[in-house]
Every structure is written in structure tokens, then in C-alpha cells.
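sanity check this chain:
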Amino acid sequence: MSYGKQTGKTTETQGEERVFQQIWRAVKEIKYGTITIVVQDSRVIQIEKTEKLRFC
């Protein structure tokens, strides 16, 4: 287990926070569409965002 220099958090925890931030950013940026989170071996390996444009 390795630790980050400044925060004392493990690099795994930092990675999890980064994934959560990316997911949250995708949710905030999309108005209509889907966000798919791909998981392999209990780890997020990919985030897919498909945005739909509505002309109403």
C-alpha cells in the first residue's frame, strides 16, 4: 500500500475519489442522455457518456 505525499491517503483511495469526481462531472455536464459505468473485477474501468440534443 502506498501513500500520497501531501494528504496521507492511500493511492487507491485517491483513485476512487478521482473516479467519483469524473462520474459527478459527467452527471453535472449532461442535460439529456446516458452515463454508463463499466466495472471489471470490482473496479471502474470506463465511463461512457452519450448525450442527446433535444430541439423542442
Notes: Residues 1 and 10 are 7 Å apart (CA to CA). The chain has one helix and two strands.
